[in-house]
Amino acid sequence: MPRKARPRLDWKEKRDPLSVYPVILQRLRRNKAWIAKTWRIEPGAEGDSELAAKIEELSSRISSCWLMLRGPDRAASVARQKVNLREFAKRRDFSLAALQRLDPATEAAIANRYPGGRLACSSGGDPKLIEKATQEAIRARGTPSRGRPVGTSSLARFQFALVAASSFYEASGKKPTRVVDSYETGKISAFQVFCEKFAGLVPSRFLARKGFRPRVDELARLGIQEFREAWAEVEKKFGRSKGPSIIADSRMWSIAEERWLGNG
Description:
mainly alpha
C-alpha cells in the first residue's frame, strides 16, 4: 500500500509566470480611448498627462488583486487550514520562525489568537503562547473535511469586483447597481456594461478559476456587494454626503484585510 504523502507545511507563494503589472499596463494603454471617454478626460497636453496618470493608477489598482491576494488565495482554503494547524501542532516547534513559514491564512489563524494579536505575536513570539494560540485555532476551525467549503470564492475576484465598482463610481459619480434606469438603453445596467469592458482589460487567466471566467452578472453582483460593505465602513468615518472623501479612502479599493489574512 503506497505511503500517504504528508502535506507540505512550509509555504511558498505561487506567482504567475508573467509579471502582472506590465501585462495589465499594456492592455490599459491599448484601451486609452475608452478610459479617456469614461473618465471624461479632454484631449490636449494637459489631458494626455491626466490620462497617463489615470492609466498608471488603474494598472496599480488592478494589479493589486493578484500581487496582494493570489498567493493567500491559492495557499490555504479553510479546509486546508484545518490540516495545516494539526500538522503544525504535531511538529512541536512553536518558535516564531516556524510560525512565519506557514501560509498567510494559517499563520493569521494562530496569530489572531495570540495575546495582543498579530502585532504582539510578530514582536514577541513566545513559543508557549504560540502553542496555546495554535490549540485555540484548532478548536475554532474544527475537524478537517475534504475539499473547499461550499460558497468559497476566489478572494482575487472579490478584490477585482470591488475595484471595478469603485472605478465605476469614480468615473460616473453613481453607485453601482444592476437596475436599469429610464435613461439607459438595453437590458443591462450601465454598471454591467462597465464590468464587461473592465473585465476585458485583464487576461482571461487572471480572472479564471478552474478554467472558467466569471460571468459579467456575477462580477457585477460581487462588485455591488463589496462596494456597499466598504462604503458603509468608510461612511462611519466621514459621515453622509461625503462621496469624494469616501471614494478616496483606501478601503474603497481593497477588501477588508482580515478576510485575506484568514481572520477568525
